[in-house]
C-alpha cells in the first residue's frame, strides 16, 4: 500500500473526530481505499446538482429514492434535513461558481470539494460543505474543518452544514488561525500513520 501524501477534507475531518485509541480501523480503511472512499458521495453530488438547478431539494430526494436499498433510509434522512435546513437558509442568496481547491496542511495536501457557494446580499460569499455522518463533530474537528476550508478559500466565509443535527456552522467572526499549530501536528501524525511499514494497532 502506497504512502498517501494527499487526502480529501472528508478524510481529515473523520480522522480529527476519531479518538486516538480508535484510529487504527480508520487508518486501515484509508489505506485500503487510497484515502478516497466516501459513503455519502452520491448524496453530496446530488446536493451540488440541487444548488445549481432547482434549489428545492428535489435532487436529494431523487438520489435517496434511487439509492441502493441499504442506503435508502440514511440518504432519505439527509434529504429531508437538506430541505428543512439548507433550502430556506440560502433561499434568497445568489449561486456563484466554485471549483475544488487544494491546501497544504503541514506536509500533506488536502483536497477540498465544496458542495456549493452562494453570495449573500452584503456581497460576501459563503463556501459550503455538508457533513452527513451520524457521529457528532467534536469542537476541534468542527472548527478544524472550517479552518481548512477557510485556508483553501481565504476570501470567502467557510460554512459547514451538519445535516443530521440540522446545524449550520460558520467561520465568520471566529479566529480559527489559532488552530493551525494543532492542525499541523494532527496531520503530521496522520501522515506518519499512513506511511508504509508503520504498524497500526
UniProtKB/TrEMBL annotation:
Superkingdom: Bacteria
Designated name of the protein: Uncharacterized protein
Taxonomic source organism: Oerskovia rustica
Amino acid at each position: 500500500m502506497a504512502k498517501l501524501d494527499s487526502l480529501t477534507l472528508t478524510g481529515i475531518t473523520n480522522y480529527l473526530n476519531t479518538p486516538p485509541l480508535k484510529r487504527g480501523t480508520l487508518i486501515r480503511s484509508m489505506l485500503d481505499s487510497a484515502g478516497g472512499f466516501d459513503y455519502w458521495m452520491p448524496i453530496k453530488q446530488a446536493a451540488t446538482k440541487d444548488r445549481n438547478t432547482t434549489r428545492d431539494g428535489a435532487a436529494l430526494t431523487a438520489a435517496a429514492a434511487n439509492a441502493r436499498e441499504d442506503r435508502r433510509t440514511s440518504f432519505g434522512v439527509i434529504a429531508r434535513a437538506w430541505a428543512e435546513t439548507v433550502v430556506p437558509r440560502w433561499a434568497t442568496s445568489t449561486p456563484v461558481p466554485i471549483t475544488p481547491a487544494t491546501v497544504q496542511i503541514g506536509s500533506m495536501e488536502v483536497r477540498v470539494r465544496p458542495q456549493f457557494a452562494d453570495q449573500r446580499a452584503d456581497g460576501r460569499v459563503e463556501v459550503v460543505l455538508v457533513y452527513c455522518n451520524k457521529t457528532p463533530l467534536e469542537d476541534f474537528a468542527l472548527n478544524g474543518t472550517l479552518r481548512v476550508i477557510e485556508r483553501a478559500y481565504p476570501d470567502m466565509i467557510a460554512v459547514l452544514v451538519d445535516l443530521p443535527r440540522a446545524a449550520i456552522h460558520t467561520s465568520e467572526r471566529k479566529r480559527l488561525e489559532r488552530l493551525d499549530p494543532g492542525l499541523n501536528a494532527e496531520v503530521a501524525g496522520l501522515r506518519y500513520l499512513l506511511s508504509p511499514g508503520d504498524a497500526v494497532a
